[in-house]
Write a structure and sequence with these properties.
There is one protein chain. By secondary structure, the chain is mainly alpha-helical. It has a domain of 37 residues. The protein has five helices and no strands. The chain is elongated, with a radius of gyration of 36 Å.
Length: 166
């Protein structure tokens, strides 16, 4: 009977703890969502303000100036997209070269360069340093005490060896 009461009280405590845990999780999630809403709200407000300023500038410009500004804006957008594409392509090429040399691909971002010759130089420099670091790590891990050597002299008579004919 006493054991049954203990199990029931434990189950009640477990449910109580579960409810408290759910409440805490709900509170943390609500706080995180509120923080995200505020950060997105600030971001949207800054974007809207920038767009309004651009629209105000465009309204005061003549048609030729407006056309130049639009061309300049589209050129900047194109250049940023192109730079992103070139960096992604360089990273991909670096990953291919690292794979060919049996090096970790995770370092592709660090050795990538738009110029293939510079990228190969970066990879060769990385490879030498990487292999040195591996070697240093291995020697450090393999360090240990030398085996103890007995300082006693060999006994000339060994009955076991004599029994074997040595």
């Amino acid at each position: 009977m006493n054991e049954k009461n203990n199990k029931e009280s434990f189950a009640a405590d477990g449910k109580k703890g579960g409810a408290e845990l759910k409440a805490m999780i709900k509170q943390y999630v609500c706080e995180a969502l509120e923080d995200m809403k505020q950060s997105f709200g600030r971001e949207i407000e800054t974007r809207i303000a920038a767009e309004r300023e651009d629209a105000a500038k465009m309204a005061t410009m003549s048609s030729e100036e407006r056309a130049r500004a639009e061309i300049e804006k589209s050129r900047k957008a194109f250049e940023s997209e192109r730079a992103e594409y070139v960096s992604e392509k360089a990273e991909f090429e670096a990953a291919k070269e690292l794979t060919a040399q049996n090096l970790p691909v995770t370092f592709a971002r660090f050795v990538a360069d738009g110029d293939k010759d510079v990228m190969l130089e970066n990879i060769s420099a990385f490879k030498t340093e990487y292999l040195k670091a591996i070697e240093a790590g291995l020697t450090d891990r393999l360090k240990g005490r030398l085996p103890r050597v007995s300082k006693e002299k060999e006994q000339p008579f060994d009955p076991f060896l004599n029994g074997l004919g040595f």
